[in-house]
Predict the structure.
Amino acid sequence: LAQTETDALLSLKSEIEQVTLQQLIDRFRDMLGKELVEGRWQSFLMQNPFILSLAFAVPAMIVQGQAYAGGKRLSGRGGKVADFLCASASTGNLAIVEIKKPATDLLGTSAYRGDDVFAASVELSGTIVQVLDQRLKLQRELPLLKEESEQPDIHDFGIRCIVVAGRTPVDRARRKSLELLRNAMLGVILLTFDELLGRLEEIHAALGPLASEPVGSAHDISF
């Protein structure tokens, strides 16, 4: 009886998780179908930090949204603000996340060479330099920022830069160019909005009935 009740509770928990995750996926898809400004996406990810954590290979947390990364001059101008400052949950190593829009062009409109080589768009190139500049300023001023914010457990063990922008190209030539480009980028990870959604969908699928069935259930075959 106890095992039956445990199995029922696990099944109920899985069903609740699937429903909640499905609602999140549906909202994500709905937003992808609209022309929304960057601020709407930033708010959505701030409200649902779990989605943003999927951009990392390790568990991560949001330290600050619209985070000051340093760089102010004596005039008070020139300060750099990152969309999100995140940190590894286990080590505190920092990462800067820059959010653009799904409609952001990642590649040029016309081929750079022949008909199958496309260069990075001006907007993507600018975003990469922007986030690298934010990292530089943050590295310079991190000791002071840690003291003033009373967060001694955040560190620079190699600050990562993550850009979420655009969509995966439809045609093969553009997909190839994008993959060549982002695999050659040093210190910056590029993730498209549809790839972020895909990670959500993979987790939802993993929580399905077959994946969530308890080990040792009545459906197991005895030998």
